[in-house]
Amino acid sequence: MARADILYRAVGGEYHKTERIWRFEGGSTLKFRYLEADSDVNQYQGHQYQWIGFDELTSWPTDFCYLFMFSCARSPDGIPVRIRATGNPGMVGHLWVKNRFVDVASQGVVFKDGVTGISRVFIPARLEDNPYLYHTDYEQNLAALAPHLFKAFRWGDWEVLVGQVFQEFRRTSHVVRPFPLEPEWFRFASMDWGYAKPFSIGWWVVTGDGRVIRYKEWYGCETNQPNVGVRMEASEVARRSFEMSINEGCKDMVADRSCWNKQGLGRSVMQWFDDAGWNMLPSISDRLNGIHAVHDRLQTIGFDGQPMLLVFDTCQHWVRTVPVLVADPRNPEDVDTRMEDHAFDDTKYALLSDLSTRRVRRPERQRYRGGFHEDERLVAEYNPLAGIWAGSMAG
User: Fold this and answer.
1) Pairwise CA distance, residues 130 & 107, whole Å
2) CA geometry: angle at 259 spanning 202 and 225, to 5°?
3) How far apart are CA 209 and CA 308, in angstroms?
4) What residue ranges do the domains of the chain occupy?
5) Three-state SS across 55-91?
6) Is CATH 3.30.420.280 the classification given to domain 171-357?
7) What is the pLDDT of residues 301-352, one digit of tens each?
8) For the packed helices 234-243 and 269-276, what is the interaxial angle rounded to 10 degrees?
9) Cα(276)–Cα(205) distance, rounded to whole angstroms?
10) Cα separation, 325 vs 92, whole angstroms
């Protein structure tokens, strides 16, 4: 408001404090309004504006308010209509803003939506673009911040999150290309149920040395609407997910406890999955221990130098959503649940369950270079990233 007073009064604007409106010669107006909760958009229904501006767009947890205001951006008199927004990396809306603006095209390249025909563009702004700050000691002040904050604020790095929960995550280490899974490794599934919001089902394998690998997923969201569920009935999700599992010998699933609640006078989600063939197990309802379980697996390094939690790069929704989760501003120990946390929730259920520690006993004859060695006791382990068996004679 103070900045507006400096800018607009100098060009003849007159501010009306009660209405929070600037009025200019010729009749044009600039209104300052609030839009904090999703329900606040209802007060603008039926309005029309030729220019709509959002300050710090990443402070909105979802794109609902932003997209709703598109219905108010119109002009019956042919005046150009513009929607503009500013924002910094981080905060609760980082993911949807990044998906909408940063990832769709190169910086400064206009992207035209194939469905709506509306164009949008991401224009990066750095310290060099502000001559008033560039020649001050502002950069030195930023350098005093933590490294990830410096990268976000100084360079506008959208791969870095302010308040990122899983700062130990490294895409180069934790995300791998698919490789053959040994048939004796134990397999199970985990699910975070959703109808209006996406459901997330992850398929996991536990290796002989206890590493847990997410090798497949089914994420029930609408195309190009990441946090909107497909509204598929539980019976259909149960049937199709079991068909995706049975040939792999996977029949155990851990799911959120709400699946055991009956829907009105009908059946529970668990009953539909049980009928489809799944062996359903309720999850442990402990959010903080769930987060610690994910931290522990990401941080723990196995004998081969690789993390004890790996994710196949085909699990795109896990890779898209889990690493960018930020902390709840009211509880720094928890994840901000306003974000798209469904894949994280099913991961949490998986790692807190006894299924994640179940191992199949290795055969007495150890596999070596494509076969079995029967005469000497062989110490051998499979290196999944190298795709080879490595062994050494032990007596």
Assistant:
1) 18
2) 55
3) 9
4) 33-124, 131-162, 171-357
5) CCHHHCCCCHHHHHHHHHECCCCCCCCEEEECCCCCC
6) yes
7) 999 999 999 999 999 999 989 988 888 878 877 888 888 999 999 999 999 9
8) 30
9) 21
10) 8
